[in-house]
Write a structure and sequence with these properties.
It contains 19 helices and 36 strands. With 856 residues, the chain is an alpha+beta fold. The longest helix has 21 residues. The radius of gyration is 30 Å and the shape is globular. Helices cover 24% and strands 24% of the residues.
Length: 856
């Protein structure tokens, strides 16, 4: 039914309970006391918002059930009277309501509440799923000792008696089932955290920030909000505190649709405070089409934009701009160019992404994304290789703010993925498992991915297009082609995929003993207008082959330069015999077989002096379907095989002192071509330690990328495996204590204790894993593996056990040894965890959150 009317007389807590639903919500099991609003008695705006009616028996009001990213999860509405003589009793009354998961409009619940004695000043509303583990408590009939302890804890907690409430919850946790005990321990942590807030000096912004961060990790949203508010009051110039206040307020108030207006000012404040000196830009051509011809089913219609719709669009895009610039810590700024078009444009081509009608609206090389706004309901996006004048293309209509953000974010994740810079960055549709769960909205998932998975270093490196301002490398040494495996006739999609995979198995033909120089293996080749035409140079070699090209590059100092390249059909790049670009991008669409230069860029690391730069250029026969796809996705050009490359700084300017030559320079040091020494290469592995504070802004470039062989060598678990759901299986029994640190078998979504499994399912429950081992000298150690959301909290707040301090460990954040990735279809550069080599003490806690201190 559409609306459930519930009546319950409440002296303390009232609950509205939904019936079972046909479908499950991915956030079921995550609704731990989500704020659901506050009814302020005597406040006209509040009373009107809840349609409150004063009656002789009390008050009656309506409360819309709390929604998260996926609507309303399974749970109960809880009404807490505040003030007056009302107290929270052990017994509660449960009323029932009904709603359907996935319904367009969630129903509201009407609650009739009366209090004994003096009326409450307000009602605090929460939405929670505690009853799944404590059913008798939530029907007012606690019977067992643990149920009575939990009910007593609730009563004391909501009276503000946090210390005795904590003792009650800890008693309940000792005798309850594992799942129920976990909830009790969570409430105990909440009690402990609440007791810390009044102890903080009002000027101690750092302590307030740390307590807010602790609240975010645990899901104590109101505590997090008031802590970050106090932090910003103590230090109004801290952008991180303003950003986190925006996040905390989004969970407390809801940032869904127009609700974002309430939290937008916090993100705008953060964006304005982050430094701009080294910010990269993401340039958007924002086109407001007042007449856009589109296809609706079998007919064509002209969509329009009214002045009111234009104003609404600009407002919502300002929200998107603020939240992105804050999420990127100011490392990337949007450049928004708004243009209104009165003339009619035809957007009726298949998939509504034909670039032809829009060529010339902006100059090639000057934007990243072209967004076509009009008054329709469309929302989709394609990459920069498909749109007009090198702009990624977005169709977008009158949608919620986070739908606008979602489609734009596709064009950002395209750059992250195909530049190879976005290690650990998920595809936009997988952002739902980013951030502190349950994410308050789809937008929260997206900008959590932007903040926790994308680094300032990644933001500085990427760009969608640029006007060529520096010369292309014009001389190279080229090898003869290497044949790939035979292709099927006719070519199939599976055959093309197999050949593409084969291109990534070719080994570089250089070494310390054989640096490239003219001779039997290498011949000189010159670029024509920057493009090296391998199809001509290789004297008729056909498709399904690869060649290697090499150049020596002189750099005046260590550091990264921006490397632009184009390749038909694909390229991999090594610097000093170390793979720096893995070949994610294949020339397609407008760039397919087109001799196109500057298709994509990445950060190329150079050392002072002469560097070896090796490029593998592959040519693979295409699968085009039968019949071939329509334009613009297939242009029928003849097969091309070649590449281009140029260098610039991050502002697209020449790099001071940089030069190149094909022939080996006398000063080149062949030792630079020696393989890097990995942990797995050392008989007695000794990891190098890094301080997180010094590498965090660009850690995927500054830290070792650890392999499974490295982890095996370090731990001695020779059968260790790691899967894409982040299950670290030692593959054998281990004598290390305590035994609960080891979970064996296969990945288990319900296993959420601190151990060697790091659940990374659709809605993750865990952020930390620990793999206990003995090093080759017999010392006991812990590999700690962190998801990106845990980086800041763990390195700031994780307590160091006394026996760890006795070993000389002062801070876990000083024990970073690298990062590890596993392949994942929705993250083509792999899912990522940070790896620390430390010691958590003889008896680590059951819950990972208990590793953290309050930071007060």
């Amino acid at each position: 039914m559409d609306r459930a009317t519930i009546s319950a007389l409440v002296a303390g807590l009232a609950l509205a309970m939904p019936s079972a639903r046909a479908e499950s919500n991915p956030h079921d099991g995550y609704a731990f006391w989500l704020p659901n609003g506050v009814v302020d008695i005597g406040s006209k705006p509040s009373e009107q918002a809840f349609q409150l009616i004063h009656g002789k028996d009390g008050v009656q009001f309506e409360a819309a059930l709390r929604k998260t990213r996926f609507g309303t999860p399974a749970g109960r509405l809880v009404v807490i009277p505040v003030g007056g003589r009302a107290t929270v009793p052990n017994a509660v009354q449960v009323a029932s309501g009904v709603w359907a998961y996935g319904a367009q409009t969630q129903p509201t619940v009407t609650v009739v509440a009366s209090s004994r004695g003096e009326a409450p000043f307000a009602y605090r509303l929460y939405f929670t799923d505690d009853a799944s583990d404590w059913p008798n408590v939530f029907i007012g009939k606690p019977a067992t000792a643990e149920e009575k302890a939990y009910a007593a804890g609730l009563a004391k907690f909501f009276r503000g008696a946090y210390a005795p409430a904590r003792e009650s919850f800890l008693r309940a946790a000792k005798i309850a089932s594992p799942s129920a005990a976990r909830r009790a321990r969570r409430f105990a942590r909440w009690c402990g955290a609440e007791t810390q807030f009044p102890k903080i000096a009002k000027r101690d912004a750092k302590a307030y920030y740390n307590l807010g961060l602790y609240g975010m990790v645990n899901g104590f949203w109101e505590l997090a909000e008031k802590s970050f508010k106090a932090s910003t009051a103590a230090n109004p110039k801290d952008p991180d505190a303003w950003y986190m206040l925006g996040d905390a307020a989004s969970y407390v108030l809801s940032d869904l649709d127009t609700g974002f207006a309430k939290v937008y000012p916090y993100y705008r404040k953060a964006a304005d405070l982050y430094p701009r000196a080294s910010s990269n830009t993401f340039r958007n051509h924002l086109a407001l089409f007042k007449k856009l011809r589109v296809r609706e089913g079998d007919r064509e219609v002209v969509q329009t934009l009214t002045p009111e719709q234009i104003a609404e669009t600009k407002l919502k895009w300002e929200w998107c701009t603020a939240v992105f610039e804050a999420a990127s810590r100011g490392s990337m700024r949007m450049v928004n160019n708004w243009v209104e078009y009165d003339k009619e444009f035809d957007n009726t081509a298949p998939s509504e992404h034909d670039p032809t009608p829009y060529e010339g609206l902006f100059e090639t090389g000057t934007i990243e994304t072209f967004m076509k706004f009009t008054g329709w309901g469309a929302s989709d996006a394609i990459g920069p290789d498909c749109g007009a004048n090198r702009g990624a293309d977005v169709n977008i209509g009158m949608r919620e703010w986070d739908v606008l953000y979602h489609e734009w974010n596709h064009t950002l994740d395209w750059l992250m993925a195909f530049s190879g810079m976005g290690i650990g960055v998920s595809e936009t549709h997988s952002s739902d498992w980013c951030g502190f769960q349950p994410i308050s909205s789809m937008g929260m998932g997206h900008h959590s991915c932007n903040r926790y998975y994308m680094t300032p270093g990644m933001y500085r490196a990427i760009h969608g297009s640029d006007l060529p301002t520096t010369p292309w490398v014009d001389e190279w040494l080229i090898t003869d082609p290497v044949a790939l495996p035979p292709s099927p006739k006719p070519m199939t999609q599976e055959g093309q995929d197999r050949l593409r995979d084969a291109t990534k198995t070719l080994a570089p033909p250089i070494s310390e003993q054989e640096p490239p120089k003219s001779g039997l293996k290498w011949a000189q080749a010159l670029a024509q207008d920057g493009y090296v035409d391998l199809g001509s140079i290789e004297r008729g070699a056909s498709r399904n082959a690869a060649s290697f090209a090499h150049v020596y590059v002189w750099a005046q100092a260590d550091g990264n330069v921006r490397c632009w390249f184009g390749a038909d059909d694909n390229a991999r790049v090594w610097v000093n015999n170390r793979l720096v670009y893995t070949g994610n991008y294949w020339a397609v669409c407008q760039w397919e077989e087109s001799h196109e230069k500057d298709q994509i860029c990445f950060a190329m690391p150079l050392r002072r002096g002469w560097n070896s730069v090796l490029v593998q250029v592959s040519n693979v026969e295409r699968f085009t379907g039968n019949p071939p796809p329509l334009k613009p996705y297939y242009y029928g050009r003849p097969d091309a095989w070649g590449f281009s490359m140029r260098f610039c700084d991050y502002q697209n300017k020449p790099v001071t002192g940089l030069r190149w030559q094909a022939e080996q320079p006398p000063m080149f040091e062949p030792a630079r071509l020696k393989p890097a020494v990995a942990i797995s290469d050392v008989p007695i592995p000794r990891p190098v330690y890094f301080q997180w504070s010094k590498v965090k802004d660009d850690y995927t470039q500054l830290l070792p990328h650890l392999t499974l062989a490295d982890l095996r060598a370090l731990t001695g678990y020779n059968g260790l495996t790691a899967s894409d759901d982040m299950f670290y299986d030692p593959a054998s029994a281990t004598p290390e204590k305590p035994a609960r640190l080891f979970h064996s078998g296969k990945a288990d979504a319900s296993e959420v204790s601190l151990n060697n499994e790091l659940n990374w399912f659709f809605s993750p429950k865990e952020n930390v894993a620990a793999l206990r081992y003995k090093d080759r000298k017999g010392a006991r150690r812990d590999l700690v593996l962190l998801r990106p959301e845990a980086y800041e909290a763990f390195t700031r707040l994780a307590a160091v056990a006394p026996d760890a301090r006795a070993r000389g460990i002062k801070a876990h954040g000083d024990r970073v040894i690298g990062y590890f990735t596993v392949p994942r279809a929705d993250s083509i550069n792999g899912r990522v965890v940070l790896v620390l080599d430390t010691w958590l003490g003889e008896n680590p806690p059951v819950d990972e959150e208990d590793l953290l201190g309050y930071g007060v």
